[in-house]
Design goal:
Layout lengths: L7 E5 L4 H11 L4 E6 L2 H11 L5 E5 L5 H14 L5 E4 L14 H29 L3 E6 L12 H21 L4 E7 L7 H8 L9 H12 L4 H13 L4 E3 L5 H14 L2
Parallel strand pairs: 1-2, 1-4, 2-3, 4-5, 5-6, 6-7
InterPro entries: NAD(P)-bd_dom_sf, Sc_DH/Rdtase_CS, SDR_fam
Pfam families: adh_short
Protein name: NADP-dependent 3-hydroxy acid dehydrogenase YdfG
């Protein structure tokens, strides 16, 4: 098992949800934490909690803001040291029918879910390569990045893109001793709908009251953020390409793989 003690992790969306679960798992292993989130209140609470077990610094960061990444990276290195563990985790979960889409919604969701990952990779990966000491990148996608998520075209597009980015980056980064995994969670007990609405209330307007109640109940019944954090560590220990939160996707993955294979002449 790798000794993570003394490493520095940068986690977007680190103030809450899955990002906080990952931070907790890393913190108790002696990893120094740089947490970035758009929610300053969540960041303050996370820093207060995690400072009891490790060194923690926090930054308010909108992952769509490409120009903001480099100054934050410089500050992280000055305060904690070079980042060798990168978690591009920030994301939102829109619930939009195809008839409700417009360019603004495409730009917003792809800006957070896809460009946010690209911005993290492009900021920190060259620094890892230049140091020549390896590193690890974990990008958070979704089960919806492996199988189609119903009719949610925009969300599915953003998450399939993150999976493809991660799979190709894994091959490209290996020659520099940098490992890459992609986290593909199913239902996790987070307030993702509320977080999404805090970014833009219009991203969930197509949910009826009944649909919203059922969706929130499904998330509430999902895996805890602490369990996800431990699964991420376990996946990193084995250098897994894909990290799953449970086996919920198995029948859907089986169906997709069979359909793909059957389509080949």
């Amino acid at each position: 098992m790798r000794d993570w003690n003394g490493s520095v992790a940068f986690i977007t969306g680190g103030g809450q949800g899955i990002g906080l679960g990952i931070a907790r798992a890393l913190g108790k292993r002696g990893v120094r934490l740089a947490l970035a989130d758009i929610d300053e209140k969540a960041l303050r609470a996370s820093k207060e909690e995690l400072s009891e077990v490790t060194d923690v610094e926090v930054w308010r960061l909108d992952v769509r803001d490409r120009e903001a990444f480099a100054p934050v990276a410089d500050e992280v290195e000055a305060k904690l040291g070079p980042v060798d563990l990168l978690f591009n985790n920030a994301g939102i979960a829109p619930a939009l029918s195809v008839s409700s889409l417009d360019y603004a919604k495409w730009d917003l969701v792809l800006g957070v879910n896809l460009s946010g990952v690209i911005n993290g990779v492009q900021t920190f990966l060259p620094r890892m390569i230049a140091r020549g000491e390896g590193g690890y990148v974990v990008n958070t996608a979704s089960g919806a990045g492996l199988v189609t998520a119903g009719s949610n075209v925009l969300y599915t597009t953003s998450k399939f893109a993150v999976v493809g980015l991660s799979e190709s980056l894994r091959l490209a980064a290996a020659e520099y001793g940098i490992d890459v995994s992609v986290l593909c969670p199913a239902y996790v007990d987070t307030d993702i709908l509320k977080h999404t609405e805090s970014v833009d209330a219009g991203l969930t307007v197509t949910l009826s009251d009944d649909e919203r109640t059922k969706t929130e109940a499904a998330f509430k019944a999902g895996v805890s953020i602490d369990a996800v954090g431990e699964k991420v560590i376990a996946g990193m220990e084995t250098k897994a390409m894909w990290i799953h939160t449970d086996d919920w996707l198995r029948p859907y993955l089986t169906m997709r793989m069979e359909q793909l294979l059957n389509s080949v002449p």
